[in-house]
Amino acid sequence: MLLNLHSIRIDGGTQSRAELNNTTVEEYTEAMLEGAAFPPIVVFFDGASYWLADGFHRYFGADHAGLDEVDAEVRQGTQQDAQLFSFGVNASHGLRRTNADKRKAVTGALQHPVSGQWGDRQIAKHCGVDHKTVAAVRAAIWGNSPDTPTERTVTRNGTSYQQNTTNIGKTDRPAPAAIPAPAPAAPLPKPVVVVPPPKTSQPDHFRVPHGEGPPEGMNEDDFGPSPEEIAEAEAADRAERELVEKMLAADDKMAMLFDEVKMLKAQVDRLERHRDELMNKAHALDQIARKRDRENLRLLKQLDELKKGGAR
């Protein structure tokens, strides 16, 4: 159906790409001005708003072309339904997704109230990526924090059920035997020590009150992470990001190989159709040749009869 372009909402978090491709928008705009037909965009209608779920490049192409209406497939659903649907679009059609696009789609799926309860493989299937990519993005978001969901919806052999993931990867080991506490020593008298105020070059209103600062011989920096710890944490973060990028790149290679297989299969199909057409033509020509042979034999027979009659 044709839908008024300005009645469609694009502010509902339903854009699963990291950013629009301006070149693609310009190409779509030129094609639309020339009268080219495009597949309908997909919107979800909740009774009040039309939420755009698939077709942002087509939407902006139509807008730049000055069109008031756009062909749309309208589905009944909420804004959250549109978001969930958007995570899986462009996996097998449209402009090829970048690594950033895939990461945003997976991140959105992990944080969505519905798909956030799914397992890695189910999210990977919905988003069109490898399940290891989902696991890496999940770890990058939550790590081992308490925000990590403890229950996921798992689907196996057509049956869905809730799985508690709290103890996954853990082993049941007996608790170590308790070590008896040593007998308390007699308390020593507390010496009275007068600590002079620490010397500092900071203004008075920045000074730590006397008696609340670090012990003598230490400063505030001694209580924070060391430079080595900071460098180690930064290196771990870089390694984690590189791992995610490698997994996303592997998804790209798999998608390219899949496209090549589809292209080769299409070529094989065309060759097989061409072979069948040639075989049909050869069969038809063979039938015509047989028919002409029979006709020639009939004519020769009639000619022989005429010759015999003339000889009499």
Automatic annotation (TrEMBL):
Note whether Transmembrane occurs among the keywords. no
Please give the name of this protein. Answer: ParB-like nuclease family protein
Q: Which Gene3D superfamilies match?
A: Conserved hypothetical protein from pyrococcus furiosus pfu- 392566-001, ParB domain
Quick one: where's region Disordered?
143-175
- Highest taxon listed in the record's lineage: Bacteria
Q: Which residues form a coiled coil?
A: 254-288
Q: What is the lineage of its organism?
A: Bacteria, Pseudomonadati, Pseudomonadota, Betaproteobacteria, Burkholderiales
List residues of the ParB-like N-terminal domain.
12-83
Any idea which UniProt keywords this protein has? Coiled coil
Q: Where is the composition biased (Polar residues)?
A: 155-169
